[in-house]
Amino acid sequence: MQLNHFNTSFPEKKHAVILACDAVNSPANIGGLFRLADSFGIQKLLFGGTLVNVNSARLKRTARATQNWISMEDDLDLVVELKKIIAEGYMPIALEITKNSLALNDLKIPKNIKIVVVLGDEQMGISPQVLEICGTHVHIPMYGKNSSMNVVQAASIALYEITKQLNSYG
């Protein structure tokens, strides 16, 4: 018998992880990010440069009601917000392929660290101003000709690896 959310026993757990989105504006992607935040026990979502319409039919369809309980702030100046979060002890990790980016599977997360994962706009990626603030850049190793993937797919892979490492410390 296939299980569903009514008959599974997955433990509910929150991680000291914030997901910061730089100009991500597609309602479908935003809805998917709400759903991911719930799945991975993320503290909250931040949207820089985007005013999120939580009443969008497309967002609601992909979020599957998670927008009703996941904490979110929108229309932020992400540079200002990231500086505040970093001052609070969060380690910024930009998910972007750059000259200095590490492969995601080579990332080693220090024990008991708080993390802010930064994602970029669907077309342009993370802005140079936001990238500059992030001391760690990671990319997902890819083996085809394309060098990018959908923001929700990339966030899924990154959050899986990051929460796996956080949970390995007990």
Task: Write down the CATH class.
Answer: Alpha Beta
Number of strands: 7
In terms of DSSP E residues, the strand content is: 15-25%
Strand order of the largest sheet: 3-2-1-6-4-7-5
User: Per CATH, which architecture?
Assistant: 3-Layer(aba) Sandwich
Question: What would you report as the Rg, rounded to the nearest angstrom?
Answer: 16 Å
Your description of this structure?
The protein has 170 residues and is of the alpha/beta class. The protein has a single domain, classed as Alpha/beta knot, CATH 3.40.1280. 31% of the residues lie in helices and 21% in strands. Strands 3-2-1-6-4-7-5 form a seven-stranded parallel β-sheet, with helices on both faces. The mean pLDDT is 94.
Concise overview:
The chain has 170 residues and is an alpha/beta fold.
List the topology elements.
Elements: E1 17-22, H1 27-39, E2 44-48, H2 57-63, E3 71-76, H3 78-87, E4 90-95, E5 102-103, E6 114-120, H4 128-133, E7 136-139, H5 151-167
Parallel strand pairs: 1-2, 1-6, 2-3, 4-6, 4-7, 5-7
Features:
170 residues; alpha/beta; Alpha/beta knot; 5 helices; 31% helix; globular
